[in-house]
């Protein structure tokens, strides 16, 4: 097993109105990376560049220890890709997917696919084009899982799912990650999904990496604070959006783990709340 499921260095994409420039992007094997950022930040462009499906230049880029320009078939056999740009022909139904697309994968498991279809109560003979957006997302995810990939790459997979279906999908992904050689890149606006399963988080802004860290480090360092009276001088440079209260001060601190000796109350934030701290930079933690 390669040390990294994804390893990219000096990855660049140039469009007339947008530029992606990522110095380094690493996903260690066996872990979940959450990819977050506003619409237009470059998340889908980054995924396309990693998959060599858009004109890109990279000093070094490997998936599962292999290069797409040399071992494309081997890589794609071991990757499950799910995008909000649904790729199955509208006329295809589940049985046709088994016959026409399943054989492209060396390890496509028809029995597993059928069990997923039954579990999610999806029709076998209804054309894909007549599915709701949520049904399309479910079918795309279970088809990707059915060929036993080692790396799942998901671009907004739960955007159209109701809460119950989202939980079911997250449970599937959790089961997928129980094997130590499995890895997951999960691009989403629903940061609550990442609160549950992510090991690492990378945030893009305007085609650049704004921060990249383990989720544990983020959650330990970037926390809400509240203090009575004057704010301790030693923490002022690590404070975002301070606000005066009747009793003292509150706001977001980027070095909470190092300042717990101070007479300050720290409270963990969700990933969504961390994203809303707009002045965050990589150097902050």
Automatic annotation (TrEMBL):
Pfam families, alphabetized: ABC_tran
GO terms for MF: ATP binding; ATP hydrolysis activity
Tree of life domain: Bacteria
Keywords: ATP-binding, Nucleotide-binding, Transport
SUPFAM superfamilies recorded: P-loop containing nucleoside triphosphate hydrolases (SSF52540)
PROSITE patterns listed in its UniProt record: ABC_TRANSPORTER_2
Residue ranges of domain ABC transporter in the record: 6-231
Protein name, per record: ATP-binding cassette domain-containing protein
Source organism of this protein record: Holdemania massiliensis
């Amino acid at each position: 097993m390669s040390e990294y499921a994804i390893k990219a260095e000096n990855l660049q994409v140039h469009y007339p109105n947008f530029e992606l420039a990522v110095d380094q992007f690493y996903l260690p094997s066996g872990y979940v990376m959450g990819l977050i950022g506003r619409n237009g930040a470059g998340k889908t462009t980054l995924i396309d560049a990693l998959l060599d499906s858009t004109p890109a230049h990279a000093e070094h880029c490997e998936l599962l220890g292999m290069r797409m320009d040399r071992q494309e078939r081997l890589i794609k056999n071991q990757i499950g890709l799910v995008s909000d740009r649904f790729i199955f022909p509208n006329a295809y139904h589940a049985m046709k997917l088994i016959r026409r697309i399943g054989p492209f994968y060396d390890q496509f498991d028809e029995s597993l696919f059928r069990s997923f279809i039954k579990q999610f109560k999806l029709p076998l003979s209804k054309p894909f084009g007549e599915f709701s957006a949520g049904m399309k997302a479910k079918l795309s995810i279970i088809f990707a899982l059915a060929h036993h990939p080692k790396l799942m790459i998901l671009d907004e997979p739960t955007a159209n799912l109701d809460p119950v279906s989202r939980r079911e999908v997250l449970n599937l992904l959790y089961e997928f990650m129980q094997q130590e050689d499995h890895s997951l890149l999960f691009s989403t606006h629903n940061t609550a999904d990442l609160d549950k399963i992510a090991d690492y988080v990378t945030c893009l802004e305007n085609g650049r990496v704004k921060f990249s860290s383990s989720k544990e480090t983020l959650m330990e360092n970037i926390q809400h604070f509240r203090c009575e009276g004057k704010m301790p001088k030693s923490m002022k440079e690590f404070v975002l959006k301070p606000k005066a209260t009747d009793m003292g001060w509150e706001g977001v601190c980027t070095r909470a783990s190092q300042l717990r000796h101070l007479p300050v109350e720290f409270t963990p934030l969700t990933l969504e709340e961390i994203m809303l701290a707009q002045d965050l930079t990589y150097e902050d933690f």
